[in-house]
Every structure is written in C-alpha cells, then in structure tokens.
Amino acid sequence: MNIAWIIVVLLIIIFFQGMLYSKFGLRGITYQRAFKQDAVFEGETIEMVDEIANKKLLPIPWIRLESKMSPYLITQSEKEQQQHQGEMFHRTLFSLLPYQKVTRRHQLIGTKRGYYPLNTVSVTTGDVVGFGEVFDSFEASTAVTVYPQLVPLDEIPLPSHSWLGDITVKRWIVEDPFLQAGIREYQQGDPLNSINWKATARTQSLQINKKDFTADHHLIIYVNFDTNEDIRMPIEQAEIIEKGLSYAASLANYAIEQGISTGFGCNGYFVEPFTNTTDRIKPSVRVEPSNSGQQIAYILDAIAKVKMDRSRNFRAFLQEDIDQGLTKTDMIIFTVRKTEKMEKQINQLESFGNAVEVVIIDDQQEKGADVDAS
C-alpha cells in the first residue's frame, strides 16, 4: 500500500511539475547572440558569444538552443573532420539556476567569402524528467562578413610589373595648379607666371611656387562573372570567379596602399538584404575610385557581399561605362574568357583615353600563366 501511494504521489508531482514547466518554463528567459568582430578574412577565426539568462525564481533543468548556420562557419574540429558539407545546425545546451546568466563563447572559422546573417534561434526546454517540452524562437539578429583571402602580389597573373609601375607614375605626373606645396628656386624653363615675387624680394633670388601633383588617373578593377552568354543559366566554374574576386581584393589593397585612387566593379549583385533579389533587373556592383582611408574596407565589404550570380552580362556592364563617357581611367578586367563583342567595347573605352588590361583566369593557372592583354 505504501509503495502504491508513493507511486501515486510521484505521478502527481511529475504531472504538476510538467504543467509548471510547460506554462512558465520559457517565461523570463532572455537570449542574446553576438560576434566579437563584424568582419574577418577568409580562414580567420571569429568568436561568437551566446548569452542566456533566467530572470525568474523557477530553475531551468535544461534548455537547448538551436540555430541554422552556414556550412562555411565551422569549428576547428569540424574543419579537421571536413564535416561542413550542406546545411548545419548549431546546438548549445544550458542549465540555469534562478536569476542566473550564462555566457558561452564559440570559436568559428570563416572558410569562404560571404555575408552570413543569423536571424533567429530555436529555444526548447522541458520538465525535470523530460516527459514534456515547450518550444519558442527568439530574435537574435547578428551577422558576420568574411572578406576574400588576400594573396601575395606575385601570385596574381598581372600583365607585367611595369604595368603597375605605370599606374603608380600616373599618380603624380600631372601638376595641379591649385595645390601649393611651398616654394623653390627658379630653374631654367620654369614659367614666369609661377614666380613668387614676395619670396623673391625676401631672398634676393628668383623663387617660384612649387605645385603639388594630382591623382589625375584612376584604377578600376573589374571581375567578369560571365561563363556563358545566357544570364539565366547558372554560373559555371564558380571557384574560378572566386579566385578572380580574391585577385581583385588583393590588387585593390596593394594599389590603395600606394595611394592610387582605386575602385571595383562586377556584373554580379549584392546578397539580401542589400539587394531585393526578386527584382527582375538588379543593380550591378560598383565602388567608385578613391584613395581615402576607408576605401579598402568599402571594396572588401562589397566583394564579400557579392552573390555568385549575374545582374546582367558583362557587355551590358561595360556599356554603362561607355554611355557615361568614362575617361582617364586604368582598368584591369579579370575574366574567364574574352569575346569579340567584349573586345569591341574595350577598344571603344580605350578610344576615350582609358587603358584596359584583360587577365584570363582559369583553374589551371599558376604564376606566370598566359595573360591576354588588350
């Protein structure tokens, strides 16, 4: 009889504690998720922080967090085991005392260029014996941007090092009459209208105004996403396009370090939410040339957020420059192939006073590979 009563009492306790956790288990639960950095380079580690709190008197014996994550954000063990094929779910299990807050840190590796948002997390809890469970989802909007990998300059199959030298020279070859850089002594051949008469009177020798130099030319780096003419077809050899984006990022980084006004463009488009992907015609990606301190961050961010798809074919992309009368620009194009129609547009751009170089990239390319330069 005593055993029967014990069983009955236990069943009543189990029933009521199940009802209690079913009704109040997720009340007073707060959750936050954040990345310690907004952006990392491909292959680098980023720290993700989970913070969950129980703001009530009732303890939580167990609570499970689940969120869908990109297969390109993985832990070191997953990288070693190569377990990142297909969609992944990140799971974390907690136990919370009354009014307790728990913080856990996870080290993730960004293995591929991209923009990775994490919007919601699924939360599950239940009673002590695990007979009942309750579910809910919390908003935990955060994101991390993975920049493309930067490669050494000598690994980029550029036309020649003299080409980069010519670009660097163009930075300072044109004097700007409005920029003063001090005075100097008169030399034979200097124009008389540059004489600084006040300085001449003070020094008792001819002095002229020294002009600073202007960045008259710009550099624009383009990546052609075309592997076929029909933009409705999926991009073939996407890994080669990724290589071109890595080359573009590396070259832009070098050029901006040299003080060259540099821009970037491609005939792809940004991922959501930066582009409405349901639009029939999406804006292509363009970062106007600049040599400001933030320019390389703008270019890297743009490259990271490009979707591997096309907004238009590359001929239409170049036609935009032709229609706008682009001039005084050095242009390098990384492309899988070069068509006759594309070559005609390049010739037209060159007739406007631009210098265009075309670099053919392929999956067999090594240092010193052949380069098709227009």
Question: Mind explaining what this structure looks like?
Answer:
This protein is an alpha+beta fold. It has 3 domains: 25-147, Immunoglobulins (Immunoglobulin-like), CATH 2.60.40.10; 153-171 and 216-360, Rossmann fold (3-Layer(aba) Sandwich), CATH 3.40.50; 176-213, no CATH class. 27% of the residues lie in helices and 36% in strands. The protein is elongated and about 120 Å long. The model is unreliable at 172-179 and 366-374 (pLDDT under 50).
CATH architecture of the largest domain: 3-Layer(aba) Sandwich
Order of helices and strands: HEEEEEHEEEEHEHEEHEEEHEHEHE
Low-confidence stretches: 172-179, 366-374
Number of E-state strands: 18
- The domain count comes to 3
Strand order of the largest sheet: 2-9-8-4-6
How far the N terminus sits from the C terminus, by CA atoms, comes to 97 Å
Number of helices, counting only DSSP H or I runs of 4 residues or more: 8
C-alpha Rg (nearest Å): 30 Å
Q: Biggest sheet, open or closed, and with what strands and sense?
A: 5 strands, mixed
Q: What best-fitting shape do the alpha-carbon axes yield?
A: elongated
Q: Structural class of the secondary structure composition?
A: alpha+beta
Q: Quickly name the level 1 CATH class of the largest domain.
A: Alpha Beta
Percent range of helical residues: 25-40%
Please name the CATH topology of the largest domain. Answer: Rossmann fold
Strand content: 35-45%
Average pLDDT level: 83
